[in-house]
Write a structure and sequence with these properties.
Elements: E1 8-11, H1 19-25, E2 31-34, H2 37-41, H3 44-50, E3 59-61, H4 70-82, E4 87-92, H5 94-106, E5 133-137, E6 149-153, E7 160-164, E8 172-175, H6 185-204, H7 210-232, H8 237-253, H9 260-265, H10 275-294, H11 296-304, H12 313-324, H13 340-348, H14 351-354, H15 362-372
Helix pairs in contact: 4-5, 6-7, 6-8, 6-10, 7-8, 10-12, 10-15, 13-15
C-alpha cells in the first residue's frame, strides 16, 4: 500500500480570497491564470484576479478547449514566458487544470509533451522542479485539482494522451463553492457523475489502498444526495460544497486507478462529447461487466448508496443519470456504430483497463459499447 496525498486543500465559502496569501507563501509574484472562455464570460477570472494585491502583475490565458490540445498549452506557455510569469493559477474545470499542469511541466522541462505520455515505452521522467501551481476548481467532477495526471490531445481529432507524475499534483487547491454556482445544470450533472465514476471505479480497482477506499465510499454517500440538489438549485451552497469536496475525494480515490467506463469513454472524447456524459452513460454497463469479479466490494458501494446489495448499483446509477438529466444512450450524443471497434481496441490497451478488477479484451469493450449505444 502507498498513500500519497500532498495537496493542501483549502475549503470554505469565500476561500478564493486567500489566493494572494497562497501565492506569497510560494514566492509567486507574476502568476499566469489558465482558464477557458466560459469561466471568463461568467466573470470568475476577473473576480478572482481582481482580489489580488496587484492584478496587473498577472497574465491571463482563457482559451482552453473543452478537451485541451497541445496548441492550447503552447499559446499559454508563450504568454507565461512573454509576461515573465513565475507561477500558475488554474481556474476552471479539468480541462483548464490539465492545461495549467502542462504549462507548469513544459516551462521547466525539455522535450515535447508526447515524450512524457504514459503509453510510451520509456516516457521522459518528470522532475520535482515544475512551476508552482495553485488550482481553483469551478466545476465539481474531474478531481484534476488533486490528481497526478494530465489528459490532452496533440490536435483536434487525435486520441487523448495521458501523462502522470507526482510533481504534477497542485501543491494547494482552493475550493470555494461560490465559484461553482454559475455552473449550468448540464455541466453540474456531467461533472458530478464523473466524480461518482472516479469513486466507484477507483474503489473497485485492484490497487490496495484502504485510505483511498474510505474516501471513495464517503464521497459516494455524499454525491447521491448532493448531486440532484445541486442540479435542481445551483445556488444551494451546501450541495455545491458537498460536490466540491466529493470531487476532490474522488480525485484522491482514483490514485488507485479506474476501470472500464473510463477505458471505453476516453477514446470517444475526441468526438467532442463532454467526458462526464460519456462516462456516465457507460458506467452502468461497466458495472455489469465488473460484477462477477468484484463480489462483496460492490455490496459496500451499495451500502454507501443506501441500497440492499451490489446487484442494485448499476440500476441506481442509471436512475441517478435520469434524475440529473444525463442521456441514456451513446447514440443520443453522436456516437455511431462505426466508432465502436477503434474505441474498443484502444480501451483494451488503456492504462485504465490494466488496473481494472476485470480486464477487458477488445471484444469485451465492443460488447459494453454496443450495450450502451
Amino acid at each position: 500500500m502507498r498513500s500519497y496525498y500532498p495537496t493542501e486543500l483549502i475549503f470554505a465559502v469565500g476561500a478564493a480570497e486567500q489566493l494572494q496569501t497562497q501565492l506569497d507563501q510560494r514566492g509567486v509574484r507574476r502568476p499566469l491564470f489558465v482558464s477557458d472562455e466560459g469561466v471568463a464570460a461568467a466573470g470568475l477570472v476577473d473576480k478572482v484576479r481582481g482580489a489580488l494585491a496587484d492584478p496587473a502583475a498577472s497574465a491571463v490565458f482563457a482559451e482552453t478547449c473543452e478537451n485541451p490540445l497541445v496548441s492550447d498549452v503552447e499559446k499559454a506557455l508563450a504568454i507565461y514566458r512573454e509576461a515573465g510569469c513565475d507561477g500558475i493559477v488554474a481556474l476552471g474545470g479539468g480541462s483548464s487544470i490539465d492545461c495549467a499542469k502542462s504549462v507548469a511541466l513544459t516551462s521547466t522541462h525539455e522535450g515535447a509533451l508526447r515524450d512524457y505520455a504514459a503509453t510510451r515505452p520509456q516516457p521522459l521522467p518528470i522532475g520535482p522542479d515544475v512551476a508552482p501551481l495553485i488550482a481553483i476548481p469551478t466545476t465539481a467532477g474531474t478531481g484534476s485539482e488533486v490528481g497526478r495526471g494530465i489528459g490532452l490531445s496533440e490536435h483536434e481529432g487525435a486520441p487523448k494522451m495521458v501523462i502522470y507524475g507526482e510533481a504534477l499534483i497542485p501543491k494547494v487547491t482552493i475550493c470555494d463553492p461560490l465559484l461553482t454556482v454559475t455552473m449550468p445544470a448540464a455541466v453540474t450533472a456531467a461533472s458530478g457523475v464523473d466524480a461518482l465514476s472516479h469513486c466507484i471505479e477507483g474503489y473497485l480497482s485492484t490497487t490496495d489502498h484502504p485510505v483511498a477506499d474510505a474516501l471513495a465510499l464517503s464521497a459516494i454517500e455524499r454525491i447521491v444526495v448532493a448531486l440532484p440538489k445541486a442540479v435542481a438549485n445551483g445556488s444551494d451552497l451546501e450541495a455545491r460544497g458537498q460536490m466540491l469536496l466529493s470531487a476532490a475525494m474522488g480525485g484522491m480515490a482514483m490514485h488507485k486507478g479506474l476501470g472500464p467506463a473510463h477505458a471505453a469513454g476516453v477514446p470517444l472524447d475526441l468526438l467532442g462529447i463532454r467526458h462526464g456524459v460519456l462516462v456516465g452513460i457507460l458506467l452502468p454497463h461497466a458495472l455489469r461487466f465488473l460484477e462477477p469479479a468484484v463480489g462483496a466490494r460492490l455490496d459496500r458501494i451499495a451500502q454507501a448508496m443506501g441500497l440492499d446489495d451490489g446487484s442494485q448499483v448499476a440500476g441506481a446509477v442509471t436512475r441517478l443519470n435520469d434524475t440529473v438529466g444525463l442521456p441514456a444512450r451513446l447514440m443520443e450524443v453522436g456516437v455511431e456504430r462505426h466508432h465502436i471497434p477503434p474505441a474498443a481496441a484502444e480501451a483494451e490497451g488503456s492504462f485504465f483497463n490494466k488496473l481494472s478488477a476485470r480486464q477487458g479484451t477488445a471484444q469485451d469493450y465492443e460488447a459494453i459499447l454496443e450495450a450502451a449505444l
